[in-house]
Amino acid sequence: MFKGINISEGIGIGPAHWQAQLIEVDDAQHQEQGEAALVLVRSLFSEVEKDIEQLIESKRGTIANDILGVFEAHCLMLKDPMFADRIEAKIKVGITIQQAISETENELMTLFSSLDDPYLRERANDIKDICKRLLTKLSKGSSAKGQARMDTDYILLARELTPSDVLEIDVQHVKGILTVTGGPTAHVAIVARSLGVPAISGIEETFLGAIQEGELLIIDALLGQVHLQPSPELVQEYEHKVDVLAQKHAELERFRQEMAITRNGKRVEVAINIGNYIDALEVKKLGTDGIGLFRTELFYTNREDWPTEEEQYQIYRSVLAEAGENPVIVRTLDIGGDKGLSFLKIKPEQNPFLGLRAIRFCLSRPEIFRTQLRALLRASTFGQLKIMFPMISGIEELRQGKQLLAEVREELVREGIEIAPKIQIGIMVEIPSAAIQADLLAKEVDFFSIGTNDLVQYTLAVDRLNDQVSYLYDYFHPAVLRLIQSVVKAAHREGKWIGMCGEMAGDPLAIPLLIAMGIDELSMSSKRVLNAKRVIKTFDIESFHDWQKVLEAGTPAQVREILASLT
Description:
Layout (H helix, E strand, L loop, with lengths): L1 E2 L1 E4 L2 E8 L15 H26 L5 H15 L1 H12 L4 H17 L4 H4 L2 H15 L15 E5 L4 H5 L6 E6 L7 H9 L3 E3 L3 H5 L6 E5 L4 E4 L3 H22 L15 E6 L2 H4 L1 H4 L5 E5 L2 H4 L7 H15 L3 E5 L27 H6 L1 H14 L4 E6 L5 H20 L9 E6 L2 H5 L1 H4 L5 E4 L1 H9 L17 H16 L3 E4 L10 H7 L3 E4 L4 H9 L18 H11 L1
Parallel strand pairs: 3-4, 4-5, 5-6, 9-10, 9-16, 10-11, 11-12, 12-13, 13-14, 14-15, 15-16
Antiparallel strand pairs: 1-8, 2-6, 3-7, 7-8
Helix pairs in contact: 1-2, 1-3, 1-6, 3-4, 4-6, 14-16, 16-17
């Protein structure tokens, strides 16, 4: 047995089958230079874009929208000057078209792979996919060998797969995927999850390379385990697990378009956390109540300079339109700490999590903040926009943020630009000082959203990215629960609603406690939505009446014991 990273949950059983190799494009047949080369490469971009658009239209209605969104993102990449201009610049200095595409691919893959954010690191795989399409088109007919069709079930093995590779998968027979590269946020993972194919990445190349064609495999994409040449007993055990998973999946599917209402009639809004337009496609697919957290910093990260107002406006407009009547809570720029920008040169900090980040950075660079606020307000008429300021530590920061927003609104009105008449303003409660002052802050906002990831970190003085102390990081710590309860009470006393958008919001063990405490909205990753709905709809407050015992517990372990006994 060896281990990897789950990128698409499930269990697969079958013989190993290696992905077909690609045909190399012959560079010798394309020696165009100067204007002729530029005309040809621009034609390649146009033709590939048309090919992708035709692919999208041919698949529309037959595959999930989130898969189509992957390829819509590829069209956007083809239009990105950072991509096209690099290739043309190389051609202008005498490099062949194939060399220009290949060098740009390597440069951008290196750039993306070096980023701190895992979501953006995985965009390198999409660059490879687009470049493969361009080179295939350049070869004038020679293309990659298609994935060989098999008449029996199998586990597909490859060093790496592009989204296009995955789209060609024979879903009827492919029971699992094993790769060396790729992570949970890769578009490959999105496609695999949408197709319902279990997948594990991060397999050491020496292990994967040792697997022979036709060898029996079990991939457990729940535990991240791969069993090579399993015994008949183990195969039987996993076949039973497959049946159980299929039953659980069928049970969860019935909650897809249902509202989350507890057995005693309490309505709980269930929303999703997103980082881009592709993620927003999940809102309608899962029947959620909207977007509880739009992390806008992801739009800033894969660039060489600040995004313009127009670029941001187009993104916000698209997300709001996709969500329709459902609310979209946009968190204003939250960089710093573990979220750096490659083009931003700021003074190094000893403790970046305690330094110039989030609202502090935005208030120190009002020209950048104004650009984002202008884009948001311009897009506000296309949906139900709510704006949320991150890392508020006290009244002054909140008032400064609101004042800047009011100035931008007045500026746009003078320019004759239409803005939604009412936009709710809220804050992330993620610093203990904000939690302690929640009674005062609640008078000046429309809502709170508790960000448990940072609230736990700051309350317990634990760097959540530090392996040496991460064992202390626990949102079931009684001190954290007491802060949450006090914030909920403060919000409700002022008639304001309160949500939660940290990891705790999607934890099945935590959800009943959060409902009992009075949380109105839970926002989580899309993969947790259906199970969260199940927990909510089967929850009955009458059987949970002793929940306040958790506030008297001394340790997280005791809290878990109490919750387990109640549920």
